[in-house]
């Protein structure tokens, strides 16, 4: 551990009730579960063993990761598979004291293999409904794959229309993910306009590998409520000022950014600069099974490398609740829970922190 960061702050952050706003559920598939589902479903994998698969997790950029991520998702066929994947993530989230999570899923990855969107959503929703009884609230965000034509996204949106009604309280928004370079947000203006007209929340990955102009497009053309990643916004001071002024949050994923070589190492990460300039940054795990950790691992790595202090960490955790798609009353309750935790006496060694899930 970096000697200038007190162990108690790391423990305090780990024990804090928190939100996760950027997690691809398919990116929570651990190698062990990939192999178990492959065996259950008779799917042949390109890797001989769990170890061989894990050894392939040495990424040079976003695309090198996505190739393996889509291969891993190929084991998901039945409603029970989606339930099991989500239930495994729920255990990790609860262990990290996540009390609210907003989960992305990629329907096109599954429909192209003949799995109906209804099957995908039913399995994920069932696990999330179970999680509610254990103190984890959640929303679901349907993401379009940006490397595919907008016509495919429009067809996916039409196919999902009944589900937005059936799962009104869970399935609350749409997002945009997959290969960023060469696929600007402007490519998806029409489908986002339709989603907006339906009253859905809007998010998009932008400024992960792509330039600041993609963040402007996400804001101005797609009219997103949050920007996923957005870390390259730092290259454009006017954009940083606009993000700060409008409080459009960035769902930052520090371990992901280092694993995908957006930054050379964690000490080079710009999260603290963005925070200091008033941008509403949040900390999230992205694809935790692939990037070396769940949300608390992201907090620990960031606190240590960027020497965050108590006020920084409080602000980041609070930003997660401020930026979440809950009702004002739910938001107030979540922030009250954080405040009750944060301002109590944590003692010299973190006070043996931890929150009950209730
Ligand atoms: N899909 C899953 N993880 C992603 C990421 N980090 N960027 C874009 N698309 C993704
Ligand atoms: Zn992502």
Written overview of the protein:
Strand 3 (about 135-145), helix 8 and strand 4 form a beta-alpha-beta unit. Helices cover about 50% and strands about 15% of the residues. The protein has a single domain (about 5-345), classed as TIM Barrel (Alpha-Beta Barrel). The longest helix is centred in the first third of the chain and has 17 residues, at about 80-95. The chain has about 350 residues and is α/β, with parallel strands linked by helices. The protein has an 8-stranded parallel β-sheet.
Short account of what is shown:
It is built from 17 helices and eight strands.
| Share of helix, binned | 40-55%
Ions, cofactors and other bound molecules: adenine, zinc ion
CATH architecture: Alpha-Beta Barrel
Low-confidence stretches: 350-358
> What gross morphology would you assign?
globular
What CATH first level would be assigned?
Alpha Beta
Structural class by sheet pairing and helices: alpha/beta
CATH topology: TIM Barrel
What is the number of domains? Answer: 1
Helix-strand sequence: HEHHHHEHHEHEHEHEHEHHEHHHH
Distance between the termini: 32 Å
Strand content: 5-15%
Largest sheet: 8 strands, parallel
Number of helices: 17
- By CATH, the superfamily comes out as Metal-dependent hydrolases
Rounded average pLDDT: 96
Site (Important for catalytic activity): 229
Cofactor: Zn(2+)
Binding site for substrate: 287
Organism: Paraburkholderia kururiensis
Architecture blueprint of SSEs:
Blueprint: H1 7-15, E1 18-24, H2 31-41, H3 50-55, H4 62-73, H5 79-95, E2 98-105, H6 107-111, H7 117-132, E3 137-145, H8 150-166, E4 171-177, H9 189-197, E5 201-206, H10 212-222, E6 226-229, H11 237-246, E7 249-252, H12 254-259, H13 271-276, E8 281-283, H14 288-291, H15 295-306, H16 310-322, H17 328-342
Parallel strand pairs: 1-2, 2-3, 3-4, 4-5, 5-6, 6-7, 7-8
